[in-house]
Amino acid sequence: MNEIMSNAEERMNKSVENLKNEFSLIRAGRANPHILDRVKVDYYGTPTPVAQVGNVSIPEARMICIQPWDVSILKELEHALNAANLGITPTNDGKVIRLVFPELTEERRKELAKDVKKKGEEAKVAVRNIRRDAIDAGKKKGKDDGVSEDEVEAFNDDVQKLTDKFVKIIDEEVDAKTKDILTV
């Protein structure tokens, strides 16, 4: 039963980490270098993350500057940023590419907050599915190994406590991101 519990906890942890990763990609009107994590530049025929082809900095709260180490890839870098559909048009001055984040409108902030809540609900569903799988595995193991019903019930209670813990973490993450987005 312990291996079922540790497996469930590991999977729930991954769900929360995935949610945090999703939230890092949602821009709240401020520059966040994590939105570049999924952008790949064609660097001598190899798709390479932006952070590995140049220096990424945030000189202002709503601007990201990318200064490539090899100036010859500026065009490829600009093309990759446009193709990534970040919602921001890169500006190229021949040495540095700047991404300026526009101020979010109230309507856009509310849309993003809804999106955050939706992603939070999806994470909760994932955690609940993991709970169901763990409880099913516990019942099956209980029957196969001849474990008493009381022990199986105690295991189910432990799985529920674990689920409640992770649902609470997800709620806290959603609240923090929503507050971040709605703060002007």
How would you summarize this macromolecular structure in one to three sentences?
With 184 residues, the chain is α+β, with helices and mostly antiparallel strands.
> Judging from the principal axes of the Cα atoms, what is the shape?
elongated
Largest sheet, order of strands side by side? 3-4-6-5
Find the structural class using helix and strand composition. alpha+beta
Q: Average pLDDT, to the nearest integer?
A: 87
Q: Roughly what fraction of the amino acids lie in strands?
A: 5-15%
CA(first)-CA(last) distance: 48 Å
* Low-pLDDT stretches: none
Count of helices? 4
Task: Record keyword descriptors for this entry.
alpha+beta; 184 residues; two-stranded antiparallel sheet; 4 helices; 59% helix; four-stranded antiparallel sheet; 15% strand
